[in-house]
Amino acid sequence: MGGVPVFRQIADIVRIRIRSGEYPAGAVLPSGVSFGQEFGVSRTTIYRALMILSGEGLIEVIPSKGRVVTGGIPVLSYQYLRIIRDLTRQIRQGELCVGTRLPSEANLRRRYGVGRNTVRRALAVLEEDGWVWGSQGARRTVRRSL
């Protein structure tokens, strides 16, 4: 691959591994240090290669987890976004009508398998966007629908 920068060569190799299933969707990639040792290059070179793959939508950085293979399928990095997406879908489809109370924070935590702060963050965004009204400690109610 004469003339092709090393970080691009590494991106090509990792891309092939993703497409071949060696790194399937949902898999956490090896660390930058591990890749650096494998390819005999610095972490900076590895990070440049991984940025290419991230830009292509093949991998995504998930806090406290690492670089996760998406395989080109968009995923929500943060659990609170999953909650927002699901609740707004229910509101749009009429499963949750205007005036309907949302499930409690405890029920949402159990349903989505997340912590209290994650649920509260999702509810705060829904309130800011005008989907629901209420406050922490009070039952929130659907405010609008599309």
From TrEMBL:
CDD domains: WHTH_GntR (cd07377). Residues 4-72, 77-145 form the HTH gntR-type domain. SUPFAM superfamilies: Winged helix' DNA-binding domain (SSF46785). Keywords: DNA-binding, Transcription, Transcription regulation. InterPro entries: Bact_HTH_transcr_reg, Tscrpt_reg_HTH_GntR, WH-like_DNA-bd_sf, WH_DNA-bd_sf. SMART domains: HTH_GNTR (SM00345). This is HTH gntR-type domain-containing protein.
